Automatic annotation (TrEMBL), chain A:
One Pfam entry name: DUF742
InterPro entries: DUF742 (IPR007995)
Protein name (database record): DUF742 domain-containing protein
Domain of life: Bacteria
From TrEMBL, chain B:
Protein name: ATP-binding protein
PANTHER family xrefs: ATP/GTP-BINDING PROTEIN-RELATED, GLIDING MOTILITY PROTEIN MGLA
Single Gene Ontology MF annotation: hydrolase activity
Record keywords, A-Z: GTP-binding, Hydrolase, Nucleotide-binding
Record InterPro entries: Gliding_Motility_GTPase, Gpn, P-loop_NTPase
UniProt cross-references to Pfam families, sorted A to Z: ATP_bind_1
Key word GTP-binding present: yes
Amino acid sequence: MTSNPWVRPYVLTGGRTQTNHQLYVHTLVSSSHFDARAASKLTPESRRLYDRVRLGPQSVAELSAHCGISLGVTRVLLEDLASTEHLQINEGAYESPFDHRLLKRVIDGLSELG
Amino acid sequence: MAFPSSADRQALTVTSAKLVIAGGFGVGKSTMVASVSEIPPVNTEAWMTQAGESVDPLSDSSAKTTTTVAMDFGRVTLAPDLLLYLFGTPGQPRFWPMWDDLCRGASGAVVLVDTRQLDASFPAINYFENDSDVPFVVAVNLFDGKLTHSLEKVRDALCLDERTPLVTVDARDRRSTAKTLVACLAHTMKTTPTRA
Ligand SMILES: Nc1nc2c(ncn2[C@@H]2O[C@H](COP(=O)(O)OP(=O)(O)O)[C@@H](O)[C@H]2O)c(=O)[nH]1
Ligand SMILES: [Mg+2]
């Protein structure tokens, strides 16, 4: 248990360990507008995440790395920020990572990279 | 940084997909991720150290081990509404609980091998054969630009199932990396139902 560094500290998350959304490391988070007053009321960690999302849709992993907040805590804080409508968690257009429409789009995009 | 503009943000629901790059230490995972990524390598050491500190601040061994972790991730914008993320797996066995987390929701995995140290990638192959539902391909990283052993010999030495594709890649080359990722996704298409 303690060998898993993705465990979230109790204090920052109010003891919660479960998240409602399926927050993969690559799940995208975005915001439609920035509310400076709302931002000023956030805890420092949540504020860093909220500020960072202004740059554009980003993955949970990017937010965690850039804000210097562990992945587990990042997940819980993002969930909170989504429930208070500071941020949107993007569920993505496809239900499965194996949806052939998604796979085809990624293949086409990668083929154009060459 | 190439974030979608705010106008795009309003209008589009951006979708992300993920591929995992696995394999032993030194086989070229970081190189492969960097060859196609549009973002500079993110300092995930800080990320892991921070995470480690939060777990067990009393044991300095936990802090020490986390500083040696290197896990890469990269991002490729394929369309204004489609991002591909690449995650390199951390190699050390003690971080294997993370593999499950990294692999959850992945569209495929590439296990990189170096023919000079094939055994370095055995654990990764075992993982995808036995412990994961993520379809995978194996890619021989051509360190010297040429294949030193026939693919057949490599397949034998790896005891690789004949249904698992085995390809070659130059991990430093963007085009070659992209081709390998395409092979990986094509394999996923072949091995999953149309509307999985
Ligand atoms: N000549 C050559 N060197 C490579 C190639 N791929 C990786 N390397 C080098 O091999 C070393 C290990 O690669 P790295 O990507 O760090 O491996 P990782 O431990 O799997 O992330 C680095 O010094 C790379 O520059 C390749 O295709 N050809
Ligand atoms: Mg590396």
